[in-house]
Write a structure and sequence with these properties.
The complex is a heterodimer of chains A (290) and B (267). Chain A has 290 residues and is mainly α. In chain A, 74% of the residues lie in helices and 0% in strands. Chain A is globular. The N and C termini of chain A lie far apart (51 Å). With 267 residues, chain B is an all-alpha fold. Chain B has 2 domains: 44 residues, no CATH class; 222 residues, MetI-like fold (Orthogonal Bundle), CATH 1.10.3720. In chain B, 75% of the residues lie in helices and 2% in strands. Chain B is built from 13 helices and 2 strands. Chain B has a two-stranded antiparallel sheet with strand order 1-2. In chain B, helix 2 crosses helix 12 and helix 4 crosses helix 11. The longest helix of chain B has 32 residues. The radius of gyration of chain B is 22 Å and the shape is globular. The chains are: A mainly alpha (290), B mainly alpha (267). Chains A and B meet through helix 1, helix 3, helix 4, helix 5 and helix 6 of A and helix 1, helix 2, helix 4, helix 5 and helix 6 of B.
Chain lengths: 290, 267
Amino acid sequence: MNRLKLFEKLRVPMMLFPALAIVVLLFGGGMISGIGQSVGYFPVIGLQDFTLDYYRDILTDSGFIESLWLTFRLAFLSTLMSSVIAVLFALVLRHAFRGSQFLTFLYQIPIPIPHLVVATGIVLLVSQSGLLSRGAVTLGLTSTPRDFPVMVFDRPGIAIQLTYLWKEVPFIGIVVLAVLKSVGPQYEEIAQTLGANRWQRFRFVLLPLIMPGILSTSIIVFAFVFANYEIPLLLGVRYPTTLPVMAFRNYQDPDLALRPQAMAISVILAIVAILLLVAYKRLAKYAAET
Amino acid sequence: MQKAVRWIAAISITLGVLLPVVPQIIWSFAHRWLFPNLLPTEWSLSSWEYVFTASSRVGEGFINSLLIATFVCFLSILVGLPAARAIALNDFKGKGLVEWILMVPIIVPGIVSTLGIHQLFIRLHLTNTFIGVSLVHLIPCIPYMVLVMTSVFANYGTELEDTARTLGANPLQVLLRVTLPGILPGLMVATMFTFLISWGQYITSVLIGGGTIVTLPMVLFPFISGVNYSNAAAISLIFVAPAILVLVLISRQLGQDSAVMGGFGRL
């Protein structure tokens, strides 16, 4: 009997332990090692003493500030535009109509497709010699590749944004769609009976229901875009570039002395992301309460 | 009005989804496609032939990516399922902390931990190894598995398991005959997400694999910024094939089972 009780008591910890151990050891261990290097603990090249010099160097570098702004702008705009478009499509797709099932399937296609494949497709589509540019010539709108607007390797990062939009709209959309479908039409019908117009039914009935889903998926999207490396590297200008690209560039530099700087950049990146997300969580809680 | 809105949605979804896909398919068969022709003037299979040569390393990358993603899925299920079940079906002290720890890798940019792990793995001789690359893929994969499966288990009643036990089923029988069939649709979606996270990893594999372990995204990468669009397109289509396969297999669960996707709504 005692043995059974002990087993019962240890059951939950034993179920949690393997997952926790792996995440804490790998993620936590990596964080500690990374933070250590950013404050000057890097014995391989003879650095042992605590210093905040790397942080000071970076925070006073105008290139860093420019990169931080670019990284934030890309993440913010991608998240905002993806959420809005996702909600619009979900509002249409929640109804059953002829072809709606096929359309929903089509809508889900981007979810499993890797970002690198999307980047390849976007280059072949919107570059100055891409399919759209060829279409513009055929329609007589332009006559040479150079007449077509620059969307790849451009400072605003249009191709980067398009790549994220293509991937993230269906991701947010499917979650919102699942909520809308499970709710059904009855709340709206009640609101309509009570005299609510189309906008009021969306604002006061549907939006509160889908808001938690929008917020949590957009947190995931924001965090992903904020930390993504390969898309801005492939489709963006060399300078200014995003913080993850800047960090990896410094890290892979043959000059090992740049590594602590790379670490400091990525620690700042993580801190900024955490602060933004905490603020966002607060906002979500506030929105849920009012 | 409603009809017009539906048409607009149908056209924009169709065009939006297909436009970046179509040029990849055409380019992979193009031999000569000069500007401003809308279609190639000469077609060939040379890119597809190139993909299947050993020197392109596409086959090697494909097998490595497949093995790593499968191994990562297996480990994620092994440790993620019990954790998700424990969180969903029990109240215990420190539950909030546990959930928080398992969520952090989804939210906090992995760049610090990845760069930090590189140093740790060098010391542990795990860089340039299959195990090392798989371990670093596990960091985002386990939390996603736990996130989706916690939501699945939260909607899952344990009554059937109790009944089976009362009727004399042993724990293995309960697991295989009752629990697994009950959670299977959700588990498929969670496994797909886990597989695809590992399948799409680029920079972590570059850093930890060190060029010794070549994965498919590493083969594709130089071609995207290069000049040979045909080869880029062909490799890209190979890279996307398993993803499409999984989507066809599970699209029903994605569209209808709100409990599964609801996992992302619980963050």
